[in-house]
Amino acid sequence: MRDASYEFLKKLLQTPGPSGSEGGVASLWREQAQGFAEVRGDRMGNSFATLNRGGSPRVMLAGHIDEIGLMVTHIEESGLLRFSGVGGWDPQVLVGQRVLLQTKNGEVVGVIGKKAIHVMEADERKKVSQIKSLWIDIGAKDRDEAKEKVRVGDVAVVDQGVVELPNGRIASRSLDNRMGAFVVLEALRLLSEEEGLAAEVVAVASVQEEIGLYGARGAAFGLDPDAAVAVDVTHATDTPGIPKNEHGDHSLGSGPVIKRATNLSPIVSEGLISAAESEDISYTLEADSRSTSTDADAIQFTRAGIATGLVSVPNRYMHSPNEMVDLGDIEACARLIALYVKGLGEATDFVR
C-alpha cells in the first residue's frame, strides 16, 4: 500500500465516529476525496464522492464509516456514568478499557469499571459481565462535577489506536468498518487515474450501519444507482473455534472475500469473480442462503431494487477493541473493485 494511502487509513481508524456521531471522521474522508472527486454530504451524514458524473451505468460503492461505541445514559450521585452500547458489544471485552468520551467541550477520558473479583461473592464470579453492571469512571467526585464535563447522550469510543504487527498486519478498533470507507475511496482514487471510464462512480461513506443499516438505505434511495458494491469486514476463520464448514475458509492474507448470497445480484458477483481472475487477484468465496447483514441488504431492496454485490476483508476479533486485518487484503479489495468498475460499459445490463 502506498504511504499516503496508509497514513490516511490510520487517520480514519484513530478518529472517533460511533453510529450517529460520525461528523469528525466524515469530514476527514471528504477532505481526502476532494483531491480527485466531487464531494458532498446529505442530511443523514452520509458522504459522497463522485467521479465521471453523467457516465453510465451509475455505480455506488458503499463502505460504512461508523463504528460501535458507547452512550451515557445516567450520571449517578457518585459521579460514575452508566452507559449503553451503540451497536453490538461483547461486554467481556469492555471491562477495564479506557474510553474517550465525545462532549461539546472536547474529549474526556474515562475508565470502564466493574466490581473487583476480590469482593465478589462466589456465584458472582461465575457470571459473565453485562453492560448494566459496568460504569465509566471519569474521576469526578460527585454528580455535579461529572455534569460539568459530560451530558447524558454523549458517546464514547474505546481508546485503542493502531498497532503495527509483523507480516503486514495491523490491529485497531473501528476496522469494522472504517476499512470499508477507506476501500471505496481508494478504489475511486485508482479509477480517477484511468482513462476511458464509462461509468459514473459514487463512493459513499455511509453512516449508522451498526444500528440498522440506515445510512446506506437513504444514500441508495437518493442516488438510485444501476448497481452497487458494498464493502465490509467478514470473520477471518483462521483462529481457534471458528468452524470453516459454517463460515468458510478465509484467512488473513487470502485476499478479498466475494459474497454469493440469495439476495445479491449474480451478475455483479460473477463480474467481481471474473475481474479477480483476470488479474490473478487471490480471493475466497463466502456463501449465505439468506441475507448478508451488511449495507448490501439495505441497498439491494431500495426503490425498485438495485443490483448489488458484496466484497469483504477477513477480520479477526470483530467488534472488539483490537480487530486485526492484513493490509494486503485491503489493498487487493480496492484494486478488485476498481478493476470491476473499469470493465463496465455503457451497455452493461444488470437486468436478470
Automatic annotation (TrEMBL):
Textual note on the cofactor: Binds 2 divalent metal cations per subunit.
Binding site for Zn(2+) 2: D176, E210, H319
Entry keywords, A to Z: Aminopeptidase, Glycosidase, Hydrolase, Metal-binding, Protease
Family annotation (InterPro entries): Peptidase_M42, Peptidase_M42_aminopept, Peptidase_M42_dom2
E.C. no: 3.2.1.4
GO molecular function terms noted in the UniProt entry: aminopeptidase activity; cellulase activity; metal ion binding
Residues at the active site: E209
Top-level EC class: hydrolase
Family annotation (Gene3D superfamilies): Peptidase M42, domain 2, Zn peptidases
UniProt-annotated binding residues for Zn(2+) 1: H64, D176, D232
Cofactor section: a divalent metal cation
Pfam families: Peptidase_M42 (PF05343)
One of the protein's GO biological processes: proteolysis
Family: Belongs to the peptidase M42 family.
Protein name as annotated: Probable endoglucanase
Source organism: uncultured Rubrobacteraceae bacterium
